[in-house]
Amino acid sequence: SAVDQSSITGESAPEDVGPDSPVYAGTVNLSGLLRVRVTKTGGKTALGRVVELLQGAEQSKTPVMKLIEQYAGYYVPIILIIAAVVLFISRDMSRAVAVLIVGCPGAFILAGPTAMVAALAAASKLGILIKNTRFLEALADVDTVVLDKTGTVTLGRLDVVGIHAIGGVGEVSLLERALTCASASRHPVSRAVVEAASQRGITIPRSLPGTNIEELPGKGVRAGSNSHSTMLGRREWLVEEGADTPENPKHPGPVVWVAERDRADGPIRPIGCLLLADVARPEARQALESLRSLGIRRAVLLTGDRREVAEQIGATLLADEVIAEVLPEQKLAVVQHESETGSVMMVGDGVNDALALASGDVGVALGAVASDVAL
Questions:
Q1: Rounded distance, CA 244 to CA 270, Å?
Q2: What is the structure's pLDDT at 54?
Q3: Distances in Å between the alpha carbon of 131 and those of 72, 329, 375?
Q4: Pick from 186, 163, 159: which is nearest to 176 by CA?
Q5: Which residues 6+ apart lie within 8 Å of 193 measured at CB?
Q6: pLDDT tens by residue, 78-111
Q7: Do the Cβ atoms of 2 and 217 come closer than 8 Å?
Q8: Mean pLDDT across the chain
Q9: What's residue 79's pLDDT?
Q10: Is there a catalytic annotation at residue 148?
């Protein structure tokens, strides 16, 4: 089958699995029938470890919070002792009261909550929910932003970003044939093909029979009849079927091939391929530039996706560093490492971001797309 493991790994492209392939708890089966043997349960699963580490992260405190708590218990007794000493020496109650007034910063005490309430109200009008006012104070010191990739700075879905037609077939004709197969499949690649065809106003041509559609999990889709069939799938599948298929073009994302067969015993003829990728959000780069103008000095792209995919998105966003192929526990370690040299704001949306969101000085979850765990 093909499975969606983005909730754990952050990889936008589905992963093909077969006998003896490991799958994480929280994986979504996209197509095909899976018989799964449970090897770990509860807290021993990847999702269980996320929950366990999340609880620990929520109970942890920043160094500044610990420092304040450490000295808060001494401050009030010291001020009272000083006022008592002044009263004992001067025998003047007004001077002792003056010490108490100076020692109690009333203006700050009154101004702080007022400013916080105003900030919370302004944020709510912009659709931002702030869970605790201490995050507003922490935001003033943030100098590093750590960004999740899939669904945060990207759209979180596959899109057709390139069409390579061969054998004299045009791009529109190639997409028409791909649509013949993709129209009856719920695989993320098929949905990307349908969306690309829809944007170009392409519909299934009547000249291409597509009534009989067979989906082969992990391989592709075959549509047609004995007289004519169209295939949409992996290059390895076409080679396995005997097609003389060229090598995949250099592309960091998934590549899916389209081929035709004119009769049941005829040769399979590849007619082109489609290049797919999870593209950056149109507003992502501008948002990052705005953050830099507000004092952010370092931007890190952090993802469980493949390195070549992450580096391409990182180059688009002009990120200072790209860290790829990491699991939730490793994301936590990266945020903790960045916190040693600066104040970190973590931005994410998935289950695999929850640990990092909780451990950063400020965690920002994209509410429109975020999972309940991240929120």
A1: 7
A2: 56
A3: 24, 24, 10
A4: 163
A5: 160, 175, 178, 179, 181, 182, 232, 256, 274
A6: 888 999 999 999 989 999 998 888 887 666 566 6
A7: yes
A8: 83
A9: 85
A10: yes
What is the arithmetic mean of pLDDT over 344-360? 87
| pTM recorded for the entire structure | 0.66
Phi, psi for 4 (deg, rounded to 5): -100, 110
Q: How many Å apart are CA 219 and CA 123, to the nearest integer?
A: 48
CA-based R_g, the chain, Å: 29
Question: What letters, b where the CB count within 10 A reaches 16 and e where it falls short, cover 64-89?
Answer: eeeeeeeeeeeeeeeeeeebeebbee
CB half-sphere exposure, 271, CA atoms < 13 A: 22
Please state, in angstroms and rounded to a whole number, the distance separating the CA atoms of residues 364 and 135.
10
Lowest mean pLDDT among 12-21, 125-134, 150-159, 262-271: 125-134
Distance, C-alpha 191 to centroid of its chain: 20
Token digits for 323?
Answer: 């860290």
- Active-site residue, from 4, 148, 353, 361: 148
